[in-house]
Design goal:
The complex is a heterodimer of chains A (262) and B (278). With 262 residues, chain A is mostly helical. Helix content of chain A is 87%, strand content 0%. The chains are: A mainly alpha (262), B alpha/beta (278).
Chain lengths: 262, 278
C-alpha cells in the first residue's frame, strides 16, 4: 500500500463515521419526533418564564434561615460522606494497586468490590437504601458513601500505579517493611493527587446530595421537592441560586487548595 | 555511627591500596543461578559468580541479556528459579521475609531512574536507607537517631551535595539525583552495592562524576560494587573485573585487560550473528 492510498483510506474511514453519526442523529430525532428547530425556538420563552417566576421574592427571603440550615446539613453530609469514603478507599486502593498489593487474590478482590460499588449509580443506591433505612439522613450518607468509595478506589489505584513504582522498588530493596514502604515511599508522591480527587468528590457530592435529598427526603433536596410540589417557584429560585453559589464557592476553595498542595 | 564508617574508610583505604590479594574475603557467591518465567526461555542459566571485598565488578551485555535480572537475583528482588546465593557468609536463597530484610539492609542498590521519592527532600530520601535497621513504627514515624542524621549529612557532603540537602528531589538534575541515590545506599552502611545502569540516563560529564564516586566507594570504603553497564569503554576503565553476559549465560569473567575483540564479539555478537539467531 502506498502512502497516498493509506491516507486516502484514513480519510474515507473518517467520512463514513461522520455520515453514520449524522444518520443516527437524524434517525433518532425522527423516531422520537424531536424537532431541533422547535426546541431551539422555545428557549427564549423558557428563559422569559424563568425570569418571571424563579426570581426570589421578599416573602421567600423570610424562609432564608430555614433554607440555609438545610443547605448546611447537605454540605456537611457531602463532606462527611466523601472523607470517610476516602479513608476506606485508601485501604482498598493499597490492596488493589499493582505496586502496593499484598498478593494477587486481595488485589483482584479489592478491585472487584470497588467496581461493584462504582457501577451502581448514586440514585440507585439512594432508592435501594431508602427501603432499608427509610427517610433518614443515614440513607443519603450511605448512598453518597458507596458511590464515592467505588469511584475513589479506582482513582487512587491509578494514582498509586502511575506515581510510585520506582520508589517502592528502592525501598523494598533496602529492606524496608511493607508499611514503611507505603507510608514513606508511596504516600508522599501520591497524597496531593489523592486529596485533589477527594476535593473533586466533595464538589460532586454537594451536587449529588441535592438529588439524593429529593429521593430520601433529607437536606436541601427535601426542601426543593417540597416547594416544587407546592408550585412555590420563588422559593425554588432561591434554593437553586444558593446551591449554585455554594458549588461555586466549594469549587473555588478546592481549586486553590489543590494548587497550594501540588 | 557516622564517625565509625568514615574513620573506617581511611583505615581500609590503606588495606585496599595494596594489590588485591587472592585471599580477599568473598562477599557474594552465586552458584548455578538460573531464572525462567515460563520454563522454556531461560533468562539466566548456570551463573557462577564470586565477588570479593572491595572489588569493582561490571556486568556487560546486550539489552535483554539478563543483566538486570542477574543483579536483582542477588538481593532477591527477583526470585531465582534455582541456584544458591551466599551473601556475607550466609545462604540467603531461602530466607524468610524477616531475615531477608536484614540481609537486604546490608545491600545497597542504585537505579537507572534513581528511584527517589520525588516530592520528598534529599535529606528524607537519604534517611530512607536506614529503614532496614528500624522497626516498622520507627520507620513510619520517621524516628531517626542523631547518629543516623549525622551519617546522612556526612555522606551527602562527601558526594558534594551539601547545598541541596533540603531541596525537593524533583528540583535536582539527573546527576544530582543519582548522587542522592548513592547517598541513600551508603547510609545503609552496606557490604555490597548493586548498581543497575547507574549512568544510562546521564550526560557524559555527570556519568564521570557518578562512576568516579562508585570507584572511590569500592576503593576507600571497602564496599564491593557490582555495576550493570552498557558502555564497554566505561567498564574497561573502572572495573577490577568484567563479567560478560550473553543470552543469560556468562561468557566472560576476567580482568579488563583480557577483554579482547574476540570476547566482545562473544558478548555482543555481530550484526550478522544477530540476523541468524533471532
Amino acid at each position: 500500500m502506498t502512502g497516498t492510498q493509506f491516507l486516502r483510506k484514513k480519510k474515507w474511514t473518517m467520512t463514513i463515521v461522520f455520515i453514520i453519526l449524522i444518520a443516527l442523529t437524524y434517525g433518532s430525532a425522527a423516531l422520537t419526533q424531536f424537532n431541533l428547530i422547535d426546541g431551539l425556538a422555545s428557549i427564549p420563552a423558557t428563559i422569559a418564564w424563568m425570569f418571571s417566576n424563579l426570581i426570589p421574592t421578599a416573602a421567600s427571603f423570610e424562609n432564608l434561615p430555614k433554607v440555609l440550615g438545610r443547605l448546611w446539613e447537605t454540605i456537611i453530609l457531602a463532606i462527611v460522606a466523601s472523607t470517610t469514603a476516602a479513608i476506606c478507599a485508601l485501604l482498598f486502593a493499597m490492596l488493589g494497586a499493582q505496586t502496593t498489593q499484598v498478593n494477587r487474590f486481595f488485589g483482584v478482590t479489592a478491585r472487584f468490590i470497588a467496581s461493584v460499588f462504582r457501577n451502581i449509580p448514586v440514585v440507585a443506591w439512594a432508592l435501594i437504601l431508602v427501603i432499608s433505612f427509610g427517610h433518614h439522613i443515614l440513607t443519603g450518607y450511605f448512598a453518597l458513601f458507596f458511590s464515592t468509595f467505588g469511584f475513589l478506589v479506582r482513582m487512587f489505584i491509578e494514582t498509586i500505579d502511575e506515581a510510585s513504582s520506582d520508589g517502592v522498588e528502592a525501598l523494598t530493596a533496602s529492606g524496608a517493611t511493607y508499611f514503611q514502604m507505603v507510608v514513606k515511599g508511596v504516600l508522599p508522591d501520591t497524597l496531593p493527587q489523592m486529596l485533589s480527587w477527594v476535593f473533586y468528590m466533595i464538589e460532586t457530592n454537594i451536587r449529588s446530595a441535592t438529588l439524593v435529598g429529593i429521593l430520601t427526603g433529607t437536606g436541601i433536596g427535601y426542601l426543593f421537592d417540597l416547594y416544587y410540589k407546592n408550585l412555590d417557584y420563588a422559593m425554588l429560585g432561591l434554593i437553586t441560586i444558593l446551591i449554585i453559589v455554594i458549588v461555586f464557592f466549594i469549587e473555588f476553595t478546592s481549586n486553590s487548595v489543590r494548587r497550594a498542595i501540588s | 555511627m557516622a564517625t565509625i564508617t568514615l574513620e573506617r574508610t581511611e583505615q581500609q583505604a590503606d588495606i585496599f591500596s595494596r594489590p588485591q590479594s587472592k585471599v580477599a574475603e568473598t562477599v557474594l557467591q552465586l552458584t548455578d543461578v538460573a531464572k525462567t518465567y515460563d520454563k522454556q526461555t531461560m533468562i539466566l542459566r548456570n551463573i557462577d559468580v564470586a565477588l570479593h571485598k572491595g572489588e569493582f565488578v561490571s556486568i556487560i551485555g546486550k539489552s535483554g541479556a539478563g543483566k538486570s535480572t542477574l543483579l536483582r537475583c542477588v538481593n532477591r528482588m527477583i526470585e531465582p528459579t534455582s541456584g544458591e546465593i551466599v551473601f556475607d557468609g550466609q545462604n540467603i536463597t531461602h530466607l524468610k521475609k524477616k531475615e531477608l530484610r536484614k540481609q537486604r539492609a546490608k545491600i545497597g542498590m542504585i537505579f537507572q531512574h534513581y528511584n527517589l521519592v520525588s516530592r520528598l527532600t534529599v535529606f528524607e530520601n537519604v534517611l530512607h536507607g536506614r529503614f532496614g535497621y528500624k522497626s516498622t513504627l520507627q520507620g513510619v514515624l520517621g524516628l531517626y537517631t542523631e547518629e543516623e542524621k549525622q551519617l546522612a549529612l556526612t555522606i551527602l557532603e562527601k558526594l558534594g551535595m551539601q547545598e541541596h540537602i533540603y531541596k525537593r528531589c524533583d528540583q535536582l538534575s539527573g546527576g544530582q539525583k543519582q548522587r542522592v541515590g548513592i547517598a541513600r545506599a551508603l547510609v545503609q552502611e552496606p557490604t555490597l552495592l548493586l548498581c543497575d545502569e547507574p549512568i544510562a540516563s546521564l550526560d557524559p560529564n555527570a556519568s564521570k562524576i557518578i562512576m568516579d564516586h562508585l570507584k572511590e566507594i569500592s576503593q576507600s570504603m571497602g564496599i564491593t560494587v557490582l555495576v550493570n553497564l552498557h558502555q564497554v569503554d566505561v567498564a574497561m576503565k573502572y572495573s577490577d573485573r568484567i563479567i560478560g553476559l550473553s543470552h543469560g549465560t556468562k561468557v566472560f569473567d576476567d580482568v579488563p585487560s583480557r577483554l579482547s575483540q574476540f570476547a566482545i564479539r562473544d558478548i555482543y555478537g555481530t550484526d550478522v550473528d544477530e540476523l541468524i539467531t533471532e
